[in-house]
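Minutes, structural biology subgroup

Action item carried over from last meeting: produce the structure token record for Rubrerythrin family protein (Tissierella pigra). EB confirmed the sequence was re-checked against the source entry. Recorded below for completeness.
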Amino acid sequence: MITLKDSITKENLLKAFAGECQAWRRYELAATQARMQNLEVLYWLFHYTANQEKEHAEVFYNHLKEFNGQEISITADYPIDNSNNILELLQLAAKHEAAEHDTIYKSFGDKAKEEGFPDIAASFHMIAKIEKVHSQRFERYAELVQNNKLFENETPIEYICLSCGHIHNATGAPQICPVCKHNQGFFVRLEDSPFGKEKILTL
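Output recorded by EB:
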């Protein structure tokens, strides 16, 4: 049986760790950009996802504990998403997350299984599924921004203020929250909030 030291999987783990660390920081930078543009809802979208990428990095890094104090050489390509355009940042994030699900982590997981590391393979395959959710979430918000629907809808829906919890039922979020006076950027569709009405009712 091949050892992790002699495997390709150890390199894939470090590539994945590096990629997740970079995604974590890229999304935090994107979150800062969103906040500068008074788009608090997108700040939290990027920040929320960034924290999950940080957890993924820790999962991959923990698989490398036996190499403590050593160095592993890798060659890999990583994206540069350095833009002030929020729509572009959302679209690029969706693209990168889809690639991790569709090809990168699937192939890493398959290789780990082939080399005899079922636990590592499971980590790659499970995280790949999470990245698909990330991609779909970024894609959804990119479409809302592109179609000027982030704070508007054809029919009345409920929006919730991320600051105070005020719920507003209308075809659009208010310019200013009537309760806490935060700007429109703090509003998110209730159905998209972490504890939206449908999610609460299904607990």
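Discussion: The helical segments are 9-36, 40-62, 86-114, 118-146, 197-201.
Next step: EB to file the record with the rest of the batch.
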